[in-house]
Amino acid sequence: MRLPKLSGTTVCLISGAAIIIASMTDTAKNAAARIGAALPRGLRNNNPFNIRKSAIAWIGKSGNDGAFEKFSSLELGLRAGMTNMRTHFRKYGLDTVAKLISRHAPSADGNDESAFVRTVSKAAGIGAHETIDWQNKALLARIFAAVVRVENGRAVELALIEKVITDYKI
Description:
Layout: E1 9-14, E2 17-22, H1 26-38, H2 41-44, E3 61-64, E4 69-71, H3 74-92, H4 97-104, H5 113-124, H6 137-152, H7 158-167
Antiparallel strand pairs: 1-2, 3-4
Helix pairs in contact: 3-7, 4-5, 5-6, 6-7
């Protein structure tokens, strides 16, 4: 069978059927790059908690952008951020939203810490100074989802956050 050559495409023969595989034009490639650039830095880096670059050998770490870690997948970036917050709780006793945010996004880094705390507390349904029950996975999911939303200006699916909490025993 003679396969046609179409401008800007490649035609392949698979099991007797002609499949047209379109190659991206320069314009389409540029548009895709602009869409990626429009994503918040944390999502572009698969680092929705915006973990600063460090010597920590996070699972899935794929480098950094000069200031923040990059991860090979959003799931592994979520895992790293959740693990980081859990460590803040266990190692430093940061057991409230206010205490966690003071460590995670301090005003010294240019963050509006008070607004961050209010937003996370309200979204999670827990008082800013109320002790977090780290056995309550639904509460943790709401807290993590709210932190990610504040960090990136957009949400990550709650189902994915819940999956990471369960799969990685956060």
